[in-house]
Amino acid sequence: MKPAEPTADPRPDWTEALSITSCLPSRVPDRGQVDQLTARLGEHVGHLVPEVDEAINNECHDTADRETARWLLGRVDHTLRQGPGPDNRTAAVHLEDLALNCRALAAICPHKEETGQLATGRERHQPTKESFVHSLIASPFLEQHTLVRPGSRGGALLPEARYEELRTHDPAEPAPAWLVDAVLGQWPDLDVTGRPSGEYLLIRQPTSRGYGKASWEVNLGCNYDCKHCYLGLKMQSGMPWEDKRRCLDIMAEAGVLFLQITGGEPTIDKDFMRSHRHAFELGMMITVSTNGSLLWRENLLRLFKECPPYRVTVSMYGATKASYDELTQRAGAWDQFVQGMNAARHARLPLRMSVVVTGDNGSEEQAMVDLCEAWGVEYEVYTNITPTIYGGGEVLTAQSKEHLRTRAQFTGCNAGHTFFHMDPHGLVSICKIGRDEQPSLVHEGIEGLARLGAIADRLMLRTGGCSGCSLAGSCTVCRPLAKHYQEAKAPLAAYCQHREKKAG
């Protein structure tokens, strides 16, 4: 049977639905509004499903597209059959799930973003003229020089003389033979023989600042409400785009080659995509730290294909729907995570899992590890919960006592000297933990970074509750982290060697 003509653009309805459900689970929206939006979105989905089915069968999708789309259709069918449920909260969660499904279906359908009208498969995949996109970066890094490739873990050290040769090389001419050989040796799939070097090689300029790495909380907001989150309050706030862009420019000027973009959940930030693209164009190797719930989005996958990240680090909060949804305090979070991981794996993103073990999912530690290995992705297991950045201890109740592990001895770090952290408002600190003194990169510019070294040296001093400690030489946490634990009134077992003496 021929499907009915499509109704009006569904975007206003799913936007409104996601807006009114954004405060779940703390506040449940009005049931009347929920029911109205549920009915409208159900109608939209009913029109979109046959379009997606037709696109899967008729359009030029690769295998990854087809498999992801079929998985989504199955999820949509389950959501529709499940219905809104008996109580107001369940109905609101159902609406949120329906809105996410509707948005995902619309992304797969061949829609023109400007008009919402259908386009042919040929129009949808029409290539556009793009600016220069580099495949290689030659850059200073700390006291060395390196050759790296976006999206790749490999790299090669460059002698200073070779780096200087590339800096003065005519980009209209083919690269020196030694570079062609080095590239083929490191990346056999990338042949630059005879190509003008300016077509693929970006040269980062020297800097006197000496920073090689940085992390940036693009926002504090999140679509989850995890019990263990060290950010505490999750507020959508931050800088306007022009200030974000200026801060990224300053980071590049300071020498930052490796940048971690985190949050909150960075992919929900309205400026995430252009922030990622701008950092890429500046020649940064980008790690995106995410919960993975939105990695199925076509615009994100397209961005990561055009501007490959160095790594996509995905937090894992359980191996089953029950434990995952409980820890994140968001019904349907597990389904979003699986949807995102399926799409990310099919897109061959450079994934790495952060397996987070808490009281809610402690019994599933091995199951989470097994799932990572079945997926063929790297992983690291984290078992110790830390206080919030405000020194709050409320999140420590998520700690699994059976999984509390003794940390390795802290032997110092370069926080504030070769690495720094920036919060959503452009305030920079020595790291994510030591935020006591924060120069403003927006107002002070690159000169603000010059103060971080001295700030780091002060914050690392064993003061306060650690002053005069006889075990300081073998302590397992830095002073800023110990201070957070002390402010949170955490038990010594969580961070201090004196727990053994107290226990005895």
List keywords for this structure.
single chain, eight-stranded mixed beta sheet, four-stranded mixed beta sheet, disordered N terminus
Overview of the structural elements:
The relative contact order is 0.08. Helix 1 packs antiparallel against helix 4. This protein starts with 10 loop residues before the first helix and ends with a helix. It has helices at 11-20, 31-58, 63-82, 88-108, 121-124, 160-167, 177-186, 241-253, 272-281, 298-306, 321-328, 333-346, 365-375, 441-444, 452-459, 479-487, 498-503; strands at 136-141, 144-148, 155-157, 201-203, 213-217, 258-262, 285-290, 311-316, 351-356, 378-382, 419-422, 428-429. The longest helix is centred in the first third of the chain and has 28 residues, at 31-58. Mean pLDDT is 85; it is low at 1-6, 60-65 and 110-130. It is an alpha/beta fold and 504 residues long. The chain is globular. It contains 17 helices and 12 strands. An 8-stranded mixed beta sheet has the order 10-9-8-7-6-5-11-12, covered by helices on one side. Strands 3-2-1-4 form a 4-stranded mixed beta sheet, covered by helices on one side.
